[in-house]
Amino acid sequence: MTSRQIRSYFNVLEKTPDYADIFSSVRQLHEYRSAFLKHLPPGLMQHCSLGRISQGKLTIMASHGAIASKLKQNTPSLLLKLQQCGLEVTSFQILVQADYTTIRNKSLYNKTHNPKKPKLNPINKDCLDQFAKTLPDSDLKTAVLSLARKCQPA
After folding, report:
1. Half-sphere exposure (CA, 13 Å, Cβ side) for 116?
2. What is the pLDDT of residues 120-131, one digit of tens each?
3. What are the C-alpha distances in Å from 111 to residues 100, 105, 106, 114, 116?
4. How far apart are alpha carbons 91 and 95 in whole angstroms?
5. pTM of the entire structure?
6. Which CATH class is domain 3-100?
7. Which string of b and e fits 5-19 if b means at least 16 CB within 10 Å?
8. What single string gives the DSSP state of each residue in 26-46?
9. How many CB atoms within 10 Å of residue 148?
């Protein structure tokens, strides 16, 4: 199906009473999103998305707590700017919503990723071995020996 066919399909669907409310909500959300992104600081854009709009409350979803905190700091100015654009926003609800695709991709990455062993030249490996011999039995000694054993020759 081409984009032209999809567009004509949506135009017909939009005129049916069952879907009119959905399409008006989508249009409103698109309008709010455009204005929101226009006034949002550039570093926050890729970490935020808009949720629903209900009774003047705009829901913003942040990818993590630090972004949510920064959004809360910017709330008064963002609210004022959106109101100046003619949008009927009276408050924000900021939610932390981890991006499912990122989480899924990271878990897939961890399953398929085979990290390279650190490289260490033979002289440095010998130095680590000698250093480990001078240490008393401890967690540090175990860690140094483990590091020396895991490294492959450079």
Report:
1. 6
2. 788 888 888 888
3. 17, 10, 9, 8, 14
4. 13
5. 0.56
6. alpha beta
7. eeeeeeeeeeeeeee
8. HHHHHHHHHHHHHHS-GGGGG
9. 18
